[in-house]
TrEMBL record:
Involved pathway(s): Amine and polyamine biosynthesis; spermidine biosynthesis; spermidine from putrescine: step 1/1
Reactions the enzyme catalyzes: S-adenosyl 3-(methylsulfanyl)propylamine + putrescine = S-methyl-5'-thioadenosine + spermidine + H(+)
Name assigned to this protein: Polyamine aminopropyltransferase
The family this protein is said to belong to: Belongs to the spermidine/spermine synthase family.
Binding annotation for spermidine: 320
Alphabetical list of Gene3D superfamilies matching this protein: Vaccinia Virus protein VP39
Chief place where the protein resides: membrane
Higher taxonomy: Bacteria, Bacillati, Actinomycetota, Actinomycetes, Kitasatosporales
Coiled-coil portions: none
Pfam families: Spermine_synth
Keywords carried by this UniProt record: Cell membrane, Membrane, Polyamine biosynthesis, Spermidine biosynthesis, Transferase, Transmembrane, Transmembrane helix
Subcellular location: Cell membrane
Length: 505
């Protein structure tokens, strides 16, 4: 397709020398690229929490956005003769959509029951607007001083890529820790709107007629006011969204460095159901329900603790203290190490009266040592030392696909765990229901076997496994809670590894 040349103004009237004007345009490219990458990362982060399956969400966001960028580049061809005004409106709209994207996703999840459709629509819109930037910026920079297209593109792409680097590092190390996803996105939109508005309203002001300039200025001011107002109301918005998701009895909601923790229900378990049953949610996923908590943890812990020596115990995860409580019920336990990555969860389990009542203050027992580290890294580093092995390892994590990354369900993790066990040591874990989630369950089974462990279906409850070194099986191996034999696993199922995970987490 060959475009007919259109009559456009050739040289811009700038308030500064041409070299300085080019510098301002390249600076705006840098800022806009940084903001654009923040929008992408924010969409992936929020969608991974609200929808789950981070790999799929990242693929959806990036593929839809890149496709939309191509469409935006084609649409921008019609704006080349009005490049300054077009760039101003594109940046204003991008600041509004990108800055409010996290809030829009959260609102859709809370009040519409899902965020997938909104995620695709926002990704597409942001992609179109980002794709329209480069053709318009190419036109503007050529109007300042004509140069060969290759040189102009090299300058623009250099500023764009460096800005993307800064945006990619700013999001996890500055915006998230200091402002959070919602406020961080809105503040990024403010920066984006200012960067685009200053370039057009000041540097290329002579390209705009009187009314056109005032309309664009009004649009930029409206966007800035909306973003600033949104930042001021983030707190009430989050509270309203939490009530819509969790009900009106939200009692505690905290953002830690790793997740969002929400407690609902009464602080005193003796007053249930008057105050509502206590429940704990991690990133929107229910992980603890007061009435069932002890029965579930007992089904996980007891078969491993009664199958042999259990003086030294390792608990992976379990920051809520419920699995630890069951372990400490055995009086001959001498030492328990809890490896919980999130110190915020441990702090909540120690301080909240309802959660502390459930775990009976187990985290403060003198036999307990709490380590805040990644379990895989901690076990691997420990394996390089001549450390005393553990008699029992309790993996107090959700079943695969329940919010925990696939790394802690890989063959490599179980192999490292096996090296930390004594000769008669056991591993207890939740593998999922063998009926409704049979493939996940038997994949865990196959992964344990590949790591040199011999798993069996725990008699403590359906969906739990107990594994030990590949020697004769425990007496209760192969029995379900009711004493019946489990369905046969599929011997063709391959194990899950770091390089080929079989779960989507």
């Amino acid at each position: 397709m060959i475009d007919r040349p259109q009559p456009c103004a050739e040289h811009a009237r700038l308030p500064v020398p041409a070299g300085l004007g080019r510098g301002f345009v390249l600076a705006s490219v840098f800022v806009c690229a940084a903001c654009g990458l923040v929008y992408e990362l924010e969409l992936v982060a929020v969608a991974s929490v609200l929808v789950g399956d981070s790999v799929t969400q990242a693929s959806v966001v990036l593929s839809v956005m890149v496709f939309a960028m191509g469409i935006g580049s084609l649409l921008a061809k019609r704006l080349r003769c009005h490049a300054a005004a077009g760039f101003g409106y594109v940046e204003a709209l991008l600041a509004l959509v990108g800055g409010g994207s996290a809030m829009a996703l959260y609102a859709s999840f809370a009040w519409l029951g899902g965020a997938r459709v909104v995620l695709v629509l926002i990704s597409f819109t942001i992609g179109v607007l980002i794709g329209a930037e480069m053709p318009l910026l190419m036109t503007l920079i050529q109007r300042i001083r004509q140069q060969d297209a290759g040189g102009a593109l090299a300058d623009l792409f250099a500023a764009d890529y460096v800005g993307a680097l800064v945006g990619g590092l700013t999001f996890p190390f500055l915006l998230l820790p200091l402002a959070g996803e919602l406020t961080g996105g809105l503040l990024t939109g403010v920066v984006n709107a200012l960067a685009g508005g200053i370039v057009v309203q000041w540097l290329f002001r002579h390209d705009l007629e009187g009314r056109a300039r005032w309309r664009l200025l009004a649009a930029n001011v409206c966007v800035l006011l909306l973003l600033i107002a949104g930042s001021a109301f983030v707190g009430p918005f989050e509270r309203a969204a939490r009530h819509a998701v969790y009900g009106g009895d939200v009692r505690v909601a905290v953002h830690t460095a790793h997740q969002e923790l929400v407690l609902t229900g009464g602080a005193d378990r003796h007053r249930w159901p008057e105050d509502g049953e206590l429940r704990l949610f991690q990133d929107g996923r229910p992980v603890l329900r007061g009435r069932q908590a002890h029965a579930v943890r007992r089904a996980l812990v007891r078969p491993a603790m009664t199958g042999g020596p259990h003086q030294r115990v390792l608990i992976v995860g379990g920051g809520d203290g419920l699995a630890l409580r069951e372990v400490l019920r055995h009086r001959d336990v001498r030492k328990v190490t809890v490896v919980e990555r999130d110190p915020g969860l441990v702090r909540l389990a120690r301080r909240d009266p309802g959660l502390r009542a459930l775990n009976s203050g187990a985290l403060d027992d003198p036999r307990v040592r709490v380590v805040h580290d990644d379990p895989f890294d901690w076990l691997r580093d420990r394996g390089r030392e001549a450390a005393v092995p553990f008699d029992v390892m309790v993996v107090a994590l959700p079943a695969p696909g329940g919010g925990t990354g696939p790394k802690l369900y890989s063959e490599e993790f179980y192999a490292v765990a096996a090296r930390a066990l004594a000769d008669e040591g056991r591993v207890a874990l939740r593998a999922g229901e063998p009926g409704s989630h049979a493939r996940e369950f038997w994949t865990v089974h196959a992964t344990l076997r590949a790591a040199g462990l011999r798993p069996c279906v725990s008699a403590g409850g359906r969906g739990f496994l107990v594994a030990r070194h590949a020697r004769p099986a425990p007496p209760d191996c192969g029995l379900l809670a009711d004493g019946s034999a489990p369905p046969r696993g599929d011997p063709r199922l391959p194990p899950s590894t770091l390089m080929h995970p079989r779960y989507r987490g």
